[in-house]
Specification:
This protein has 471 residues and is α/β, with parallel strands linked by helices. It has one domain. The protein has 16 helices and 14 strands. InterPro entries: LRR_dom_sf. This is F-box domain-containing protein. It comes from Massariosphaeria phaeospora.
């Protein structure tokens, strides 16, 4: 029998054992010694939720030293299955979290643990918010910070070397966590960091959500100060996602950051309006092998109220101040994908994988999660979508971000002709249009017109993809 056939047979057996339940797996280990090696390796990943059977299985793991030492990857989740049925108004769940909490200190004995992922529910409610509408599926700030503090305390062990940390739905408000010595000690060992930030969304009154202070404090200061700046010389893989648009407003200024060893960068819901945002990506050209832009539109026109644009540092000549319309300040970025793709092709010489699309933000899985974009970010294809350009209008609700075409994604595969027709018919339906027409007539409306040039941009994207250094 050839060596390749042996490899195939071994792989089939290994995958079969990964699907076995604990009882058959134990019986098979007893009956066949070669399979014992494969069954032990299949236990390298452990999953813990508050469900009774999950907690029981996790605690049983520590009764066997061999199985315990085999664990390299740990996935933690603070909810059981259906997020929508997780009632935590006044921080009350339908089940006790105490058994789940009691498992966390035991992590320090997983001597070969290398990768930890933690997932909270998507909905958050900040302490400064007067009314908490999001009672279903919302986990309080107190619960989240307790989990984080206990987790970092457990991982703060000289015998542990966790190099990969992933936190999905990290709240933009985590009081007392970042000052914790255990957090800093764990952070010092990281090589890969993957964060999806959860910001508050008031379903019954989202008109002032954009001004909730916690999100601005986090993106303006805390993200760099507590997470990214200390990791500049360590990280090889970085993912930054958020549940709402960020980058332009709330502002994330990345110009002071440089990751000399960065190989993979994934950004989700990152809005773009400044050339220096593109320059920051290009600054990692010497090492960057993977780039994923998941729902990262160029904002080709933005309208701000005074208190909004006054808090942002605009370049000279970038911001137009208007006193006679609803929009007090406006900016019309000239960035276009048609110019960016050729620069990526010429400068990102180490790039092997490029993804750009609207990921599965609205896809449901068997666990009831309604957002799979963060988890499936490395599967992102490269294609032009209508939502690659957007508007920001301070007077439009329920969201100030007007991203055309999102409703068409995930429903069916639209042909190029259908998408082109959609782009031609894009009508910026926002309060700002009336202002622009009254102030500037046709010239004002022209600046709000959808700027995509699909045929030329598609050609530029294809040239970029053709030039990738594939493995």
């Amino acid at each position: 029998m050839s060596f390749s056939c042996l490899i195939v047979k071994y792989e089939i057996r290994r995958r079969s054992f990964a699907r076995l339940l604990s009882a058959p797996l134990k019986f098979t280990r007893i009956q066949c010694r070669p399979f014992a090696v494969m069954s032990a390796s299949s236990s390298s990943s452990v999953f813990l939720t508050p469900a009774e059977d999950s907690v029981a299985n996790f605690k049983a793991l520590f009764e066997n030293a061999t199985r315990r030492e085999a664990v390299q990857k740990l996935s933690l989740r603070t909810f059981i299955d259906d997020i929508e049925n997780e009632v935590s108004y006044a921080d009350e769940k339908e089940y006790s979290m105490d058994p789940w909490h009691s498992c966390i200190p035991q992590l320090s004995s997983l001597s070969n643990l290398r990768e930890v992922s933690l997932t909270f529910t998507q909905r958050v409610s900040n302490p400064t918010t007067a009314y908490h509408y999001n009672d279903y599926g919302t986990e309080s700030t107190e619960l989240r910070t307790t989990v984080l503090k206990n987790l970092f305390t457990a991982l703060d062990n000289t015998a542990l070397n966790v190099s990969t940390l992933s936190i999905e739905n990290l709240q933009d408000c985590s009081p007392g966590v970042y000052e914790q010595p255990a957090f800093k000690n764990v952070r010092a060992k990281l090589k890969s960091l993957h964060l999806k930030i959860a910001v508050e969304y008031s379903e019954h009154g989202p008109d002032r959500d954009i001004d909730i202070p916690e999100k601005h404090v986090f993106f303006n200061r805390q993200l760099n100060e507590h997470w990214l700046s200390p990791l500049q010389h360590q990280l090889t893989h970085l993912s930054l996602y958020a549940s709402d648009y960020w980058g332009v407003f709330p502002r994330w200024d990345c110009r002071g950051l440089r990751f000399p060893h960065l190989q993979s960068l994934a950004l989700g819901n990152w809005s773009i309006a400044h050339q220096w945002q593109i320059d920051w990506i290009l600054a990692h050209a010497d090492t960057l092998e993977e780039l994923y832009l998941d729902d990262c539109p160029i904002a080709h026109a933005l309208s701000f109220e005074t208190h909004q644009h006054a808090s942002l540092a605009w370049e000279d000549g970038e911001l137009e101040i208007m006193q006679d319309g609803y929009a007090d300040g406006a900016i019309y970025p000239t960035l276009r994908w048609l110019a960016i793709f050729p620069v990526f092709a010429a400068r990102l010489t180490q790039l092997k994988r490029f993804g750009m699309a609207h990921g599965p933000w609205d896809a449901y899985n068997s666990d009831g999660d309604s957002d799979q974009a963060f988890q499936r970010r490395y599967d992102l294809p490269a294609r032009l979508e209508v939502g690659r350009y957007c508007l920001f209008d301070c007077g439009t609700l329920p969201t100030h971000w007007i991203v055309e075409g999102m409703r068409y994604n995930g429903v069916k595969e639209w042909s190029e002709d259908e998408v082109r027709k959609l782009e031609e018919e894009v009508d910026p339906d926002c309060c700002w249009v009336l202002d622009a027409e009254e102030r500037e007539g046709k010239a004002g409306l022209e600046r709000l017109k959808y700027p995509g040039r699909r045929r030329e941009e598609n050609m530029a994207l294809e040239q970029l993809l053709e030039g990738l250094e594939m493995d």
